[in-house]
User: Fold Flavodoxin family protein from Ensifer canadensis.
Amino acid sequence: MKVLLVFAHPEPRSLNGALRDVAIRELEAQGHEVRVSDLYAEKWKSEVDRSDFPSISADTQFKPSRASKAAFTTDTLTQDVTAEHEKLLWADTLILQFPLWWYTMPAILKGWVDRVYAYGFAYGVGEHNDTYWGDRFGEGTLKGKRAMLIVTTGGWQEHYSARGVNGPIEDLLFPINHGILYYPGYDVLPPFVAYRVDRIDQAGFADVAERLRERMRTLATTPPIPYRQQNGGDYLIPSLQLRPDLVNPGDRGFALHVNRQGAAE
Amino acid sequence: MKVLLVFAHPEPRSLNGALRDVAIRELEAQGHEVRVSDLYAEKWKSEVDRSDFPSISADTQFKPSRASKAAFTTDTLTQDVTAEHEKLLWADTLILQFPLWWYTMPAILKGWVDRVYAYGFAYGVGEHNDTYWGDRFGEGTLKGKRAMLIVTTGGWQEHYSARGVNGPIEDLLFPINHGILYYPGYDVLPPFVAYRVDRIDQAGFADVAERLRERMRTLATTPPIPYRQQNGGDYLIPSLQLRPDLVNPGDRGFALHVNRQGAAE
Assistant:
């Protein structure tokens, strides 16, 4: 298997750095090829702006998605972005690793998404009209590949549980798992989360590392989260609302978009 | 009233730019003072890294929250960050305005949060032990102030409805409203959202602008989202889980953290 690990922590000597090395060593021990995009080390540019699209003249209004479409079509995206496209197309599996900062990814990783997810590559793929709303949510450029998150938190697992004050971790990560990974076609594995990492001791680290190694060993076989495909018949088009006969009409929230009847677990 | 508007769109001549101007004009017409942090215009630095803490020696392991605490305590945060603190303390009301990119804020605004939300300012405030878990979620440095989001989306309102494929907009914005604004003490107003803005015509813009002006006129009187205070008795400490006698035990998701019985609407 070919694995791309996108790493978003500023300190290589951190717990995140140590876990990254654990993951890479285990993947390589299993015979997989691993490439890493180390965003801080590579001084990744986080902000989508006009300088990403040098062919736009100074007096033209900058419309990010229009500029992205034009640059993708004419193959004039910047080299840092096309290098990531090449890696994403090369990899069978994508791993995003980051510390949870303010309940989501650090800015530098959001900037990787904002800039790498070009129009024509990650969105704006496939036909788009009132009866077909593009190849997305289960289809798209990255269909057939797997993706998962490796996340660390300072807070306790209980704080991120079903009734924890932060909100459930699976709901906090839904906009990433569903909105960023499933959207362009990835099968999304359940995330690996290490909680309470600020005060972890050696025994605690050994446990977390072994849990992570196990996830790396089962990367190819772990059942993905059974999100509903947009074009699989579960949604009305063009309103893109879940069919009224699916799930209780009163139900709401992110969990509706997971088809638990089709789940392996 | 004193209003700080943090603006995160790269093009002043955009719909976002026009809506910002509508909001500012209406606020000023009402006699309010307005200051703007225009993140792109100010070339805001998005990435938390070692250069934010020049007093850390090169051979010291960089721990972001520890470094943030030390810099806040010794008043050695960088000038761009302390300037934002001054504005946040000055303002009665904070508005964050941004286009929804990949279901959350653009990287540059996340970078504003990651860097401005220093330890001792936005978190790590108040006592912290096994019976009291800090002044947060309804208490903290910014308690008594109001905050709201102004958000634009390309997608349709139906796509962000209770059963829409993207997930409900209030759930997508929960990590921001609850995790970023309510956390350091803000009373959080319901967001202003303009949908389907890519194809908006003049009449559509006039409608959106009028809706926004109305929200600006009622900024001081709109009831906030009735989130449950962490230290108000609704949560067990230190597990920070919602008390078992509140809400049905089977219920879950972000909506649990809103006390609808106490709501004005």
